[in-house]
């Protein structure tokens, strides 16, 4: 209410779109973004196959997602702009969706650039890489979506999302090395299965199942993050995460 006049709520889709647009400039000014983008771009120097391997064996892609996605809420809190945004007639879930969409778009961009730059250094030849690049890029996008949604959730729940994220990546996801059903409890196992050219040794199921699981993780984690963000009180929280 302003001077007795009820302020109309911004339509949900409009709020998400405007938040996406307004998130672009701060994103490019953020050191976190350039660190994350560098982690995705540097492996292109070593060729296409090594790029994909380093993304997941060295955890470079999940680390890049952690650096940026976990800060989608924290950086606004640190700058003191979060409280201002939350006083506006905007659905909080739409606000978070717009910020998450900006993360996803501007993380897939350096990943695609790196994959394209790595193609000429492929041991299989440029034509073979270009034939598989759309599929591999779709898998990388799914991975960024899944990890990003999970780390947005951690950022919404905790003041120390990076610590929890590192524990997830370097302890929990190491169970992918164990036999039996344990790999099915990780994200990286499904991603690796989708990137593998040979599905006969699958530990996680068919391609369709792997895609479905990654989409389900993205949807469930982001929905939980949006619910937490819509309910949590941020007004009295300190700046640093």
Summarize the structure.
This protein has eleven helices and no strands.
Question: What does this 3D model show about the protein?
Answer:
The longest helix is centred in the middle third of the chain and has 32 residues, at 126-157. Mean pLDDT is 84; it is low at 1-5 and 236-241. The chain has one domain (12-231). The chain is mainly alpha-helical. The protein starts with 11 loop residues before the first helix and ends in a 10-residue tail after the last helix. The chain contains eleven helices and no strands. Helix 4 packs antiparallel against helix 9 (161-170), helix 7 (92-118) runs antiparallel to helix 11 and helix 10 packs antiparallel against helix 11 (207-231).
Tell me the count of domains. 1
| Overall outline | globular
Largest sheet: none
- Termini separation comes to 32 Å
Mean pLDDT: 84
Tell me the structural class.
mainly alpha
Helix percentage range: 55-70%
- E-strand count: 0
How many DSSP H or I helices? 11
Name the poorly predicted regions: 1-5, 236-241
Radius of gyration: 19 Å
Strand content: under 5%
Along the chain, the helix and strand elements come as HHHHHHHHHHH
């Amino acid at each position: 209410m302003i001077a007795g006049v009820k302020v109309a709520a911004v339509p949900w889709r409009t709020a998400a779109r405007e938040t996406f647009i307004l998130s672009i400039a701060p994103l490019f000014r953020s050191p976190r973004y350039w660190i994350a983008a560098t982690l995705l771009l540097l492996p292109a120097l070593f060729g296409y196959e090594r790029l994909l391997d380093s993304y997941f064996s060295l955890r470079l892609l999940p680390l890049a997602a952690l650096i940026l996605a976990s800060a989608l809420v924290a950086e606004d809190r640190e700058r003191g702009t979060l409280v201002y945004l939350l006083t506006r007639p905007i659905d909080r879930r739409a606000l978070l969706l717009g910020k998450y969409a900006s993360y996803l778009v501007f993380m897939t961009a350096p990943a695609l650039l790196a994959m394209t730059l790595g193609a000429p250094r492929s041991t299989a030849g440029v034509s073979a890489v270009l034939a598989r690049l759309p599929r591999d890029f779709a898998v990388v996008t799914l991975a960024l979506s899944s990890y990003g949604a999970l780390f947005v959730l951690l950022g919404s729940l905790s003041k120390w999302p990076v610590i929890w994220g590192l524990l997830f990546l370097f302890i929990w996801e190491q169970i992918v090395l164990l036999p039996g059903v344990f790999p099915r409890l990780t994200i990286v196992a499904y991603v690796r299965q989708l990137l593998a050219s040979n599905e006969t040794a699958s530990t996680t199921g068919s391609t369709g199942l792997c895609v479905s699981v990654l989409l389900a993780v993205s949807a469930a984690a982001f929905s939980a993050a949006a619910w937490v963000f819509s309910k949590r009180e941020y007004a009295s929280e300190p700046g640093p995460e």
